[in-house]
Design goal:
Helices cover 85% and strands 0% of the residues. By secondary structure, the protein is an all-alpha fold.
Length: 112
């Protein structure tokens, strides 16, 4: 057999051996380890999600229990007033103020 043929056979044998060892190491060591870690992370994420839900529920319930009924009503009214004020001011910025829409005196011209 020629030298180049022996060299090709050796390269193929080394490549196959290396790929086999790497594949076995990955399937027997790395993959089970990663699967365990992923399962741990999933379990932790489910627990965190449940804790957040319970924390939000208890916080809202505690906040509503501590707030008197009049406070909730007054804050709602204030919010509605603020919203209508924003709406009026927003439209007046496009249409002009109430003074600009009023008819002017004898000259028929608008004040500048």
């Amino acid at each position: 057999m020629a030298f180049w043929q022996e060299l090709i056979i050796q390269v193929i044998a080394v490549a196959l051996t290396t790929l086999t060892v790497i594949a076995l190491f990955f399937s027997l060591v790395v993959k089970p380890f990663l699967n365990r870690k992923v399962d741990e992370i999933r379990l932790i994420s489910v627990q965190i999600d449940e804790k957040i839900r319970e924390g939000v529920r208890s916080g809202v319930m505690q906040g509503l229990a501590e707030a008197p009924e009049n406070t909730v009503r007054e804050s709602t009214r204030a919010f509605l007033r603020m919203g209508s004020g924003l709406m009026e001011n927003g439209l007046s910025s496009f249409l002009g103020g109430a003074e600009a829409l009023k008819p002017s005196g004898a000259g028929g011209t608008r004040p500048r």
